Amino acid sequence: MENQSLPSKEISVATKTFIPAFRAKVGDWTYYICIMKYAQVAREVGFAHELGGNKDLNSLIQRGIGARTEGIKNYLLKSEHRFLGSLIVATWGGDPEYLELHMDDPDGVLKGVDNGFGVLTFDGSHQFFALDGQHRLRAIKDAIKQRPELGAEDICVLLVSHYDTLDGRERTQRLFTNINRNAKNTTQAENIALDVDDAFAILTRRMLTEHPFLSAAGRVRVFTRPPSEGDFSLAAGSIPVGDKSALTTITVLYEILKTLSWGLPAEINDLQNRPSDEVLEQSYQALVHRVDEMLKAAGDVATVLQATPNAKDLRAPKGKEGNGQPMLRPVVQKAVARVLRTIVDQDLLSWEEALERLLKLPWKISDAPWVSVFNPENSKMITAKENTELLEEMLRVHLAPTSKAEVTRARKTFKEVRQKQYPVAQDDLELGILSSEE
Fold this sequence. Notes:
The chain has 15 helices and 15 strands. The radius of gyration is 28 Å and the shape is elongated. The chain has a domain of 171 residues. The strands form four sheets. Strands 1, 2, 3, 4, 5, 6, 7, 8 and 9 form a nine-stranded mixed beta sheet that branches. It has a two-stranded parallel ribbon with strand order 10-13. It has a two-stranded antiparallel sheet with strand order 11-12. Helix 2 crosses helix 3, helix 5 crosses helix 6 and helix 6 crosses helix 8. It is of the alpha+beta class. The longest helix has 21 residues.
């Protein structure tokens, strides 16, 4: 074999880096099977934060890392039988080249055996970041701090190339999502942040990076715990009362965009196939318009929030929580969007007419219909399923009741769920009943 003494670890000559590797192919990917020392992995493989324009989205190329990391670290520290599976690592930059090596085999006995074996070379400017195996990577980094001698142990690394272009980022994101979707379920928030085929995930990310209001720092909550060396927790469907900036969360925004998407090209509902750029642009512009108009009709919440130094003072003013703005509560946001969608779908009112009625509602959380999900006695939200369904039912009879019987049923349901009379009288709600001409 040429270069008989080829080692199993990285060698640096001047600024160049050489890594022994087997080259392999699967699908449209070429990848390299390498052996690295724990010390090299701990030193050189990081948690990427370069994707996207929103600083929170930048952290979502990797999965969130939770308490499970501690168990892996202890396993490395204490077990003599320790063994970790391969990491999948993307390499960014470094002008990688592959030099194939061949064995000396004059008799042809080894013909074909040496195919795909060689050396990867980098110019020294490369960076590595993990696509899969973040729990193991975090555990390796932490374990070596306590037992540096572990740095001499080996792990298999599968290297793929990442290109810092629009197509390159999309390709790497798709690989990440596919790896985790097929190996271990990703959370909804992770899929929204990374999926490059789901139109609503794409549009949600664009909102976070381009929308004049929603792109502001912290306006859409992505994390419940901010990233720290790969360790973070992703936001789901609620916002802490004390959050200083957020209107909503990434998952709620995604749901709202899906809810408000009636009348748009059917392609955006195929979550497995990316729509054309033209369809995405058309859908984005339509959804921006609808979101903006909905927020305007909901007490002009965007303008008010921008003028408020601390969102908590608007969401739940200290000692006067009942005066809080309902639209700063995700449960209300989803209910408003769903009821508007139902009204338009059923041709009860036009979008513009429905917004006119929405604008006339009192925008104080202790008022009707918001008391369906708020308890004025203890100033707490009530977000059980029966309460969220109740809110939608009460919103419906405020915005587009079709009969006296519908109003009666809604008020009866409120009394059953909340154990009190609805604060708006039957006669007052009946004034909004739609005539046959509407």
